């Protein structure tokens, strides 16, 4: 296992958030090269790099870029940066905007130029106020220096960035709900289109990408797609800002290439499981990915394909590590409390299912439930799976199923008191 | 888009327009698919997830309200797997529902209740104490009350105000199972079509103060009718029932779909137009400004007719076409001139860009078609005016005989006033401002001891002949 820093290369430099330091350290050095190329050439570069969206879904980035770049509506396209980082266990984007905000701005400029957009919006999680301040300051500095605005670094190409702060709804991290919210409406996910098409912001073709995805673009433009492909696996090229929280010696964000062993990652960067209790389980990529048992963790490799083969998902790469002291029913109840609160309430299975499943697990936890609760819970998970507009409810269903199936002894009836 | 293709539904082959939404096609062809949020006028929203069907080739069940018809599509609305999906989603609609059907006005015409009877019929798995509770009586404005416990959050009401009326007073607030429909902060329902959301509500969440607790719907009989509020002639249903006192009453008007006129909706004023039929119904005869018994009034009226040498007849522009014709013939026969003046019906404050017309003469088009003189009559050279229900005839030098269905709001009192049965007890043809002809049958039977237009024409003709 080798150390690699692509997005986090400048995280440890003191004062990186200031423009003068950032310029000294090479920020915005890709702009000249980019403006000497056509936007289409940059899209091709991203395509060849195999860059995958780093917000959790892991879909290849370039096809989305093409949909916007190729749009023939004649309307100005828009780039929207998803910085509504609300997934429990995930805190990577906030590292970028607070430690190296100019990297994100540089990425936005490259992306906007590539897809032909002049207006970019950063939708930032409402609770990220302190980090938002740093980001806004960086944007202000970039405007003052002529890096942003009418003529980006004297290129004649206009890019304006607007920061929009969310009001604190998890669902607004879903791209279509985010756009609804950005349009000033209630953050309800939109019905899926019937054909492949870009997203739409006030009727304009729109690219929505995660902060980290965009922050990876400067590296690809500077070093070429092959350099990025030099890391990771053929299917999951490059790196991700993986992170750890929970029962770990050194929780935090540590970049690594795709395909490394999860256990090795935890040992090398996290210093292993804290205390003496030993590893019990890991939620691999944010709360909405199915939990892995200690045995599965030993097998797990940190790339999209391996995690899918294990019946889970890489998600955001934010691992929640749990030791043997943890009551899995309590963990599920904790998570369901979150989902119950955060369901947008649009689709019936999610609106009612998240609440009911939380109530059922609470009754199992308190020992009030007879054996019927688990059957009801599993049936409910089935009803929530694949029957809603967005993937919120299916994710909850996957979470419930993994907990119940992998820790059956703890979900037995009459467990008497719980915590 | 308009190509007809063949699709198979539950093994039955049907023809459908390519690219149309599947749900309405299924419904039109008689397949039972439950739904809450979809509505023909509002389109799909995809939130209730009730209209799921299986489509060959799709891994998962699909909502038929957001699926387009395509050639050779194979659809299943029946079978254990899809029925179980439907049953479970329906169960989720009910877990926090108060099931207070015995005191709910919607009972009997409630989609949730009907679907439960059709697809559910299971025992509740959530105890009564476990249910979430919410406000039962929130005044949204314009006489519309909201019961948050009964609401299934289909958002039809929100979409109606936003997409159809454009006033957008309603929104969803809260999140998850605590979501609720409410008015936007600082606002109340204030549009002139607001009460339509009560009809749109598929459950008992929205009720109209006007109808709330008045009648169980299974006692109501429904008659197709036409609104008399303005020259738009919106098609309506009139729901009526015999009361415990034996009197037949109208309980509500509801919009009746008519794509040529009003689509799916009516204005609130038209909806409540049934009230005046009872409240302002002219029941007694009047002579020289005072109530009088029938015999005396008729004797006085007869005297007026017998003494008159030159008669002018006026009639209301709300009468049915056939009634106008009969009055024309009557006027011709007695050598009188006939006028239906239209000026007084103009009400610019009432009109809007949608259904409400400034001309409140509901059968104005029939007046024009009949070729009746619409000028205000010159009364100086006549000695008797016979007025059939025109509400805007002012004083006359001549003597005056009024035949009136609703009490006049002010104006000049006739020498003799005789009661005419109200429009809901008469029948005939109406022509809308856009030329659409509708036959408007009587909602209630003619009242005893009350005469309609033909009855009065007969009576007066007889007096005239005998004089």
Provide an overview of this structure.
The complex is a heterodimer of chains A (419) and B (467). Chain A is an alpha/beta fold and 419 residues long. Chain A has three domains: 19-229, Rossmann fold, CATH 3.40.50; 239-323, Ubiquitin-like (UB roll) (Roll); 328-413, NADH-ubiquinone oxidoreductase 51kDa subunit, iron-sulphur binding domain (de novo design (two linked rop proteins)). Chain A is 42% helix and 14% strand. Chain A is built from 17 helices and ten strands. The relative contact order of chain A is 0.12. Chain B is α+β, with helices and mostly antiparallel strands and 467 residues long. In chain B, helix 9 packs parallel to helix 11 (453-466). In chain B, a hairpin with an 8-residue loop joins strand 11 (221-226) and strand 12 (235-242). Chain B contains eleven helices and 22 strands. In chain B, the strands form six sheets. Chain B has a seven-stranded mixed beta sheet, covered by helices on one side. Chain B has a five-stranded mixed beta sheet with strand order 2-1-5-3-4, sandwiched between helices. Chain B has a three-stranded antiparallel beta sheet with strand order 6-7-10. The radius of gyration of chain B is 27 Å and the shape is elongated. Chain B has four domains: 4-78, Ubiquitin-like (UB roll), CATH 3.10.20.740; 94-208, Alpha-Beta Plaits; 220-279, N-terminal domain of TfIIb; 285-466, Rossmann fold. Classes of the chains: A alpha/beta (419), B alpha+beta (467). Chains A and B meet through helix 14, helix 15 and helix 16 of A and helix 2 of B.
């Amino acid at each position: 296992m080798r150390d690699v820093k692509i997005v986090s290369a400048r995280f440890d430099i003191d004062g990186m958030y200031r423009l003068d330091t950032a310029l000294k350290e090479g920020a915005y050095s890709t702009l000249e090269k980019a403006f000497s190329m056509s936007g289409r050439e940059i899209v091709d570069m991203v395509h060849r790099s195999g860059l995958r969206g780093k917000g959790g879904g892991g879909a290849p980035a370039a096809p989305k870029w093409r949909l916007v770049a190729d749009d023939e509506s004649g309307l100005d396209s828009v780039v929207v940066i998803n910085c509504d980082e609300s997934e429990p266990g995930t805190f990577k984007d906030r590292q970028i905007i607070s430690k190296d905000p100019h990297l994100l701005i540089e990425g936005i400029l490259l992306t906007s130029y590539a897809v032909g957009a002049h207006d970019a919006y950063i939708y930032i999680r409402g609770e990220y106020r302190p980090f938002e301040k740093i980001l806004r300051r960086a944007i202000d500095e970039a405007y003052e220096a002529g890096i942003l605005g009418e003529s980006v670094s004297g290129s004649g190409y206009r890019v304006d960035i607007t920061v929009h702060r969310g009001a604190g709804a998890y669902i607004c991290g879903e791209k279509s709900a985010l756009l609804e919210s950005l349009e000033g409406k209630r953050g309800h996910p939109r019905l899926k289109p019937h054909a492949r098409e870009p997203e739409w912001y006030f009727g304009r073709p729109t690219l929505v990408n995660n902060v980290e995805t965009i922050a990876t673009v400067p590296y690809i433009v500077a070093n070429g797609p092959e350099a990025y492909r030099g890391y990771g696996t053929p299917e999951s090229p490059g790196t991700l800002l993986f992170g750890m929280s929970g029962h770990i010696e050194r929780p935090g964000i540590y970049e690594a290439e795709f395909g490394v062993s999860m256990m090795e990652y935890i040992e090398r960067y996290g210093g292993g499981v804290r205390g003496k209790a030993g590893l019990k389980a890991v939620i691999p990529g944010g709360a909405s990915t199915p939990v892995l048992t200690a045995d599965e963790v030993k097998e797990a490799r940190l790339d999209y394909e391996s995690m899918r083969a294990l019946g889970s998902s890489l998600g955001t790469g934010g691992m929640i590590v749990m030791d043997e002291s943890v009551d899995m029913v309590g963990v599920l109840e904790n998570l369901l409390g979150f989902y119950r609160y955060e369901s947008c309430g649009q689709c019936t299975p999610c609106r009612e299912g998240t609440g009911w499943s939380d109530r059922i697990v609470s009754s199992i936890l308190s020992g009030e439930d007879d054996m019927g609760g688990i059957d009801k819970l599993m049936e409910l998970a089935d009803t929530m799976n694949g029957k809603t507009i967005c993937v919120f409810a299916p994710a909850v269903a996957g979470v419930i199923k993994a907990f119940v199936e992998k820790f059956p002894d703890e979900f037995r009836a009459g467990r008497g008191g719980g915590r | 888009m308009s190509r007809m293709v063949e699709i198979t539904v539950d093994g039955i082959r049907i023809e459908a327009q390519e690219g149309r939404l599947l749900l309405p096609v299924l419904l039109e062809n008689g397949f039972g698919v439950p739904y809450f949020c979809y509505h023909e006028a509002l389109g799909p929203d995809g939130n209730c997830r009730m209209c799921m069907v299986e489509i060959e080739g799709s891994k998962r069940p699909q909502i038929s309200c957001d699926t387009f018809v395509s050639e050779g599509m194979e659809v299943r609305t029946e079978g254990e797997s899809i029925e179980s999906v439907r049953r479970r989603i329906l169960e989720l609609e009910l877990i926090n529902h108060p099931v207070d059907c015995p005191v709910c006005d919607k009972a009997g015409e409630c989609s949730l209740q009907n679907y439960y009877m059709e697809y559910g019929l299971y025992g509740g798995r959530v105890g009564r104490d476990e249910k979430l509770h919410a406000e039962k009586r929130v005044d949204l404005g314009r006489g519309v009350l909201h019961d948050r416990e009964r609401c299934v959050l289909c958002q039809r009401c929100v979409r109606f105000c936003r997409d159809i009326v454009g006033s957008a007073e309603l929104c969803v607030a809260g999140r998850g199972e605590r979501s609720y429909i409410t008015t936007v902060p600082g606002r109340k329902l204030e549009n002139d079509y607001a009460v339509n959301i009560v009809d749109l509500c598929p459950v008992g969440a929205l009720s109209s103060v006007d109808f709330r607790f008045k009648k169980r719907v299974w006692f109501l009989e429904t008659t197709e009718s036409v609104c008399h509020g303005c020259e738009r002639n919106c098609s309506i249903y009139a729901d009526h029932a015999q009361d415990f006192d034996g009197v037949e009453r109208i309980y509500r008007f509801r919009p009746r779909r008519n794509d040529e006129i009003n689509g799916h909706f009516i204005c609130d004023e038209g909806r409540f137009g049934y009230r005046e039929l009872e409240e302002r119904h002219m029941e007694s005869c009047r002579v020289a400004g005072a109530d009088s018994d029938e015999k005396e009034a008729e004797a006085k009226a007869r005297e007026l007719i017998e003494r008159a040498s030159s008669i002018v007849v006026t009639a209301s522009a709300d009468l049915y076409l056939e009634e106008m014709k009969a009055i024309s013939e009557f006027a011709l026969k007695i050598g009188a001139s006939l006028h239906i003046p239209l000026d007084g019906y103009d009400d610019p404050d009432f009109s809007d860009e949608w259904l409400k017309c400034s001309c409140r003469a509901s059968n104005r088009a029939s007046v024009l078609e009949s070729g009746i003189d619409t000028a205000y009559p010159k009364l100086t050279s006549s000695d008797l005016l016979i007025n059939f229900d025109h509400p805007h005839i002012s004083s006359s030098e001549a003597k005056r005989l009024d035949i009136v269905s609703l009490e006049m709001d002010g104006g000049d009192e006739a020498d003799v006033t005789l009661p005419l049965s109200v429009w809901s007890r008469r029948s005939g043809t109406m022509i809308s401002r856009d030329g659409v002809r509708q036959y408007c049958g009587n909602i209630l039977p003619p009242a005893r001891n009350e005469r309609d237009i033909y009855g009065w024409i007969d009576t007066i003709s007889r007096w005239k002949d005998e004089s």
